[in-house]
Amino acid sequence: MRWTCPIRTGAENRPEALALTFAGQRWTYRELDAEVGRWMAALEGRGVKAGDRVALLATNDARVAHLFFALGRMGAVLAPLNARLTRAELRPLVEDVAPRLTLALGNLTERLPGAEPLESFADGVATTSSGSVPLEPTSPRVILFTSGTTGRPKGAVLTEGNFRASARGSEANLGAHPAPYWLGTLPLFHVGGLAMLTRTAYDGGCLVLRERFEAEDTNRALDEEGVTHASFVATTLERVLEERKDRPVPPTFRLALIGGGPVPAPLLARARAAGILALQTYGLTEACSQVTTERPDEADGRTAGRALPGVEVRIVGLEGESLAAGREGDIEVRGPTVMFGYLNRPEATREAVRNGWLRTKDVGVLDASGRLTVLSRRTDLIVRGGENIYPAELEAVLASHPAVREAAVVGVPDARWGEVPVAFVATRKGAVLPEDLGAWCRESLAGFKVPARFLEIESLPRNAMGKVERTVLRERAQKT
User: Is residue 169 part of a domain?
Assistant: First the structure.
């Protein structure tokens, strides 16, 4: 099976439909197709060929989309790097990529020696390239580095087949939409951002791209720009609701995907009251974003939903045996969204993918309907005196306290119990750290699960995708 660029397909089938907006600029599919061709000509002029890699350091910008699709048509590979990393952190990643070309937004070039400014790369190129290398399911498209919380970051190689399968599975799960307008606030150096970019292109929709998330701007997009879909984490969803004072969203808005971990039930109810159908989802870089997502007609906020159509999820025990519904174990994923492998890391690839099953190192449980509840990262599991404690369970109870804005629980060494949970709590504006948190937890949790300490924090440290940086919290807890 071979495919052509989805922007080219859109230009042929829906030339005047809007494909991309950014910073007041708009591109129809016809215009975006021409712009991608111009970027192809610029890349060809620099000697970039099929199979070459291009490293990129950038925040969200329309030129990132132009570059991504241009490289795809050439059969070349994009390696977008996390714009939050330091020069020292970026160096080994660039060494792994061994790029033919290195680009960066002007204000980031100093972190990437030898990088050329992305803003001016295609300036002065008046010609366009109309060629296009046929794309196959195994054609590499991007190299995305994992967060590296358990060691040196690994570059997951995702293919054209991965992105198309993810887009098709998401569409089948959410329901077809004639032309989705997806608000793009997630970074394009992360799988979630790239999944939105490719999903809208394959669906013939429009990516309403933003440089970053801002609550006021997000609400303006919902109210005035016809946005139909968005992706949030719990904290950004709450900020959107607070900024709009829970005012209902317009009927044009259809739904929001919520990633980054479980969402407090009160927040989901608050979103529903404002007309936001918030669907919990579970995914990871190595599976090209979504693995499971709630279905709109059965969403209750209690699970992360079923596997996307075409994707399989199972729970296995310590010996790799499949476990029945209701039993806790390691989450494994199989299907066309699973990565090609890790760049230059054959042993790590063999360890991560066995017999086609991706070993996520996350702990979860499936119910009788096949809906997944994610309990913890295996590395986040807290074992207190032989009893397993899952941070997500404690965090949900803490987040339901009226004075608590957000909370995270980590395990720290303990001489008696081996490990005990410690909770970091950020309170709502004007509130002080409640003295009754221990009693509040005991109403819903067994005694061994109640945190040994409650530490106040202004806000939880998060990475670019809004996930809590638990390593930072563990270090802080051991020093406090």
Answer: no
